[in-house]
Automatic annotation (TrEMBL):
<comment type="function">
    <text>Forms part of the polypeptide exit tunnel.</text>
</comment>
<keyword id="KW-0687">Ribonucleoprotein</keyword>
<dbReference type="GO" id="GO:0006412">
    <property type="term" value="P:translation"/>
</dbReference>
<comment type="similarity">
    <text>Belongs to the universal ribosomal protein uL4 family.</text>
</comment>
<dbReference type="InterPro" id="IPR002136">
    <property type="entry name" value="Ribosomal_uL4"/>
</dbReference>
<dbReference type="GO" id="GO:1990904">
    <property type="term" value="C:ribonucleoprotein complex"/>
</dbReference>
<comment type="function">
    <text>One of the primary rRNA binding proteins, this protein initially binds near the 5'-end of the 23S rRNA. It is important during the early stages of 50S assembly. It makes multiple contacts with different domains of the 23S rRNA in the assembled 50S subunit and ribosome.</text>
</comment>
<dbReference type="GO" id="GO:0003735">
    <property type="term" value="F:structural constituent of ribosome"/>
</dbReference>
<feature type="compositionally biased region" description="Basic residues">
    <location>
        <begin position="60"/>
        <end position="71"/>
    </location>
</feature>
<keyword id="KW-0699">rRNA-binding</keyword>
<dbReference type="Pfam" id="PF00573">
    <property type="entry name" value="Ribosomal_L4"/>
</dbReference>
<dbReference type="InterPro" id="IPR013005">
    <property type="entry name" value="Ribosomal_uL4-like"/>
</dbReference>
<dbReference type="GO" id="GO:0005840">
    <property type="term" value="C:ribosome"/>
</dbReference>
<feature type="region of interest" description="Disordered">
    <location>
        <begin position="43"/>
        <end position="79"/>
    </location>
</feature>
<comment type="subunit">
    <text>Part of the 50S ribosomal subunit.</text>
</comment>
<keyword id="KW-0689">Ribosomal protein</keyword>
<protein>
    <recommendedName>
        <fullName>Large ribosomal subunit protein uL4</fullName>
    </recommendedName>
</protein>
Length: 206
């Protein structure tokens, strides 16, 4: 089992914790990770872009000039794609970009992403993360004590003071153990997680 340090909110090491190899010590499958990231981004797309084809553009019903004898190229409509104001060739239409990943693939990709954070020494476990008030400076001080700037902060439950304290800090996002995803894990330079959240992750994704 991998062993990582546990820090307090002042950034001092207070203990160590052993991570479950079934979650934090698996083989890093880059193909599954890639598929999971692509799926996440595809599912976020609205797919509402739309443009008109030549059949949908208003006008163009009359032939602009006769077929022969003018010396000009033959034209059938002023709404053909080569005309200004004409329709678009293969115009984009509203569509659903989302696709499905099997549940086993999702879990395997998540385990691989978590393992990559351990391998790269980018996981920071905090014994507890609690504020008695909503204060951005306090959250900033915790991150600075860990020497991280771009971080995903994972909590076990909805700690309102922590979430609101981190909300206005650029490049910092809070998430709960039941809502983490591969894209966010890899997007941020540091994976900051509370000790209780580590236990919850091991219970949920084991």
């Amino acid at each position: 089992m991998a062993t990582v340090s546990v820090y307090n909110m002042e950034g001092k090491q207070v203990s160590e914790i052993e991570l479950n190899d079934a979650i934090f010590g698996v083989e890093v499958n880059e193909h599954l990770i890639h598929r999971s990231v692509v799926q996440h981004l595809a599912n976020k797309r609205q797919g509402t872009q739309s443009a008109k084809t030549r059949a949908e553009v208003r006008g163009g019903g009359r032939k602009p000039w006769r077929q022969k004898g003018t010396g000009r190229a033959r034209q059938g409509s002023i709404r053909s794609p080569q005309w200004t104001g004409g329709g678009v060739v293969f115009a984009p239409k509203p569509r659903d970009y989302s696709f499905k990943l099997n549940k086993k693939e999702k879990r395997a990709a998540l385990r691989a992403a978590l393992t990559s954070r351990v391998v790269d020494n980018k996981i920071f476990v905090i014994d507890e993360l609690n504020f008695d008030e909503i204060k951005t400076k306090k959250m900033q001080a915790v991150l600075e004590s860990l020497n991280v700037k771009k971080a995903l902060v994972v909590l076990e439950d909805n700690n309102k003071n922590v979430v609101l304290s981190a909300r206005n800090i650029p490049n910092v996002k809070t998430a709960f153990t039941n809502s983490i995803n591969v894209y966010d894990i890899l997007k941020y330079d540091a994976f900051v997680v509370t000790k209780s959240a580590v236990n919850a992750i091991e219970e949920v994704y084991a």
